[in-house]
Amino acid sequence: MSRPLAWLEANQVALYLGGIAVGAAAGILAPAAAPAASIATTPALALLLFATPALMLLQFALLPLYLALFGAGELAADLDPRPFVDAFVFIIAVPLAAAWAVQAAARARAVRVRRPAERISRGANAAMVPLMVLVLAVVVASQIAGIGVSAVELLRLVPLYAAFLIAMVVVGLGATRIARLDARSARAVVFSGATRNSLVVLPLALALPVGFELAPLAVVTQTLVELVGMIVLVKLVPALLPVRGRPIA
């Protein structure tokens, strides 16, 4: 791993928080820039989700079920499908097709095909942290000026998100004990459950109609809670699951 990439990985949480802060400052101090930030959101998200679009497909397919479970069946019936189709095509389907094409090319026998694909793959991996920072900044900048006093509603979500994170840590620890996983595998399970990468639903939140302006910022708030939780878990999980070279008793 190169030194710049190692630095990005080591400081990613601070960089993400910085992106949110910059976006908030830009949105509040220069609200006229919100339309430009909104336009920048789609390509930034498409690039960010280049490596992980399969999960987006599942989220998109399950949206009607989510709305029904949340008592929003009438909303689902009244939604204009065009914004969701646009989100699916440009933010999900295109990155998915591109990712599959690059992965297939990286496995090709022909060197002239494989090497460029490998360079693209390495570049995408290196760009993940900067792209995440960019997405957080432009989403917050494009949405924050219009929320006003409704920001209190976002604060009410923080305890819920924190409770989910704590519950998933407990569930993860229990699952690893039942499965008798070794410590390294157990750590991966706990982190995977506690950090659900809420940004994968951001394209759908941005496609919601007027009246749901808080939805994208609710997703960003979830991401912020996850980031803070990661800071804690990076210290806590190794203490709870020390590496001893044997399954958890």
Describe the structure.
The chain is mostly helical and 249 residues long. It has one domain (3-240). 79% of the residues lie in helices and 0% in strands. It has 11 helices and no strands. The radius of gyration is 20 Å and the shape is globular. The chain starts with a helix and ends in a 9-residue tail after the last helix. The model has no long low-confidence stretch (mean pLDDT 80). Keywords: Membrane, Transmembrane, Transmembrane helix. It comes from Agromyces protaetiae. The chain crosses the membrane at residues 13-33, 45-67, 87-106, 127-152, 158-179, 199-218, 224-243.
Features:
mainly alpha; 249 residues; 11 helices
Question: Helices, strands, pairings?
Answer:
Layout: H1 3-10, H2 12-29, H3 34-48, H4 53-69, H5 73-78, H6 81-106, H7 111-143, H8 151-179, H9 183-194, H10 202-206, H11 214-240
Helix pairs in contact: 2-7, 2-11, 3-6, 3-7, 4-6, 6-7, 7-11, 8-9, 8-11, 9-11
The backbone outline, from C-alpha atoms, is: globular
Order of helices and strands: HHHHHHHHHHH
Count of helices? Answer: 11
Rg, rounded, reads 20 Å
**C-alpha termini separation:** 35 Å
Average pLDDT for all residues:
80
As a percent range, the share of helical residues equals over 70%
Number of domains: 1
Total number of strands: 0
Low-confidence stretches: none
Structural class: mainly alpha
The percentage of residues in β strands lies in under 5%
Largest β sheet strand count, sense and barrel closure = none
